[in-house]
Specification:
With about 180 residues, the chain is of the alpha+beta class. It folds into 2 domains: about 30 residues; about 140 residues, Thiol Ester Dehydrase, Chain A, CATH 3.10.129.10. It has 5 helices and 5 strands. Strands 1-3-4-5-2 form a 5-stranded antiparallel beta sheet. It is globular. The protein starts with a helix and ends with a helix.
Length: about 180
C-alpha cells in the first residue's frame, strides 16, 4: 500500500513537470505562463545587420502558437470535429532586443482573453541564457465554420477548457 502511494506521488510529480514545462513548483497553476518553444538563432536566420530577421521571429512565434493549443489540452481534431476551424485574425510583434546567431531562445505564452468568437494570447521570446526579454507578440485567433467559411461561435467545450488557462491580470505583468 505504501509503495502504491509513493508511486502515485512520483507519477503525479512527473506529470506536473511535463505539463508545466519542467517547472517543479507545486504552486504552478494551469493559468500561468507556459513554455511554447525553444530553439537557437542560426546564421541563416540573420540579416545583413547580423541580427535575427523579423521573419524568423514570426516563425518561432508561429510554432509556439501551435504548441499552445496542445498545452491547453486541445488537439486540432478536437476543434475540427466540431465543424469549426481557428485562424489568426491579428498579430502584433514588439521587437525589444536584438538576437544574434548562437543565441538560445525560449518562448513562453499565455492566454489573455476569451471572447464569443475569438481568443487572444501573448508570447514572449527570451534569450534563454540571459533571461532577457527580446520580443513580445500578441495574437487574436477567430473561429469559423469550416463548411460556410464564415465566422462561428467558439464551441462551449473549447471555451470551458480555455477558461482553465486564462491568465489573471497580475500574471500579465510577469516575465518582463
Amino acid at each position: 500500500m505504501a509503495f502504491e502511494f509513493v508511486l502515485s506521488i512520483i507519477l503525479n510529480s512527473v506529470t506536473n513537470l511535463m505539463l508545466n514545462g519542467g517547472q517543479a513548483n507545486g504552486r504552478i497553476s494551469m493559468s500561468d505562463w507556459m513554455e511554447t518553444n525553444r530553439g537557437v538563432v542560426l546564421p541563416q536566420h540573420c540579416d545583413h545587420y547580423g541580427h535575427m530577421n523579423v521573419r524568423y521571429y514570426g516563425h518561432f512565434f508561429d510554432e509556439g502558437g501551435y504548441h499552445m493549443w496542445i498545452r491547453w489540452g486541445i488537439k486540432q481534431s478536437d476543434i475540427w470535429d466540431q465543424g469549426v476551424g481557428v485562424v489568426v485574425a491579428n498579430r502584433s510583434t514588439d521587437f525589444l532586443k536584438e538576437m544574434k546567431a548562437g543565441t538560445l531562445t525560449l518562448i513562453k505564452g499565455g492566454l489573455t482573453k476569451i471572447g464569443n468568437r475569438s481568443m487572444a494570447y501573448e508570447q514572449r521570446l527570451f534569450d534563454a541564457e540571459l533571461s532577457t526579454l527580446c520580443a513580445r507578440q500578441t495574437t487574436v485567433e477567430v473561429f469559423f465554420d469550416t463548411d460556410t467559411r464564415t465566422s462561428a461561435p467558439m464551441p462551449d467545450s473549447i471555451r470551458k477548457t480555455l477558461g482553465l488557462h486564462l491568465l489573471p491580470p497580475e500574471k500579465l505583468e510577469m516575465l518582463k
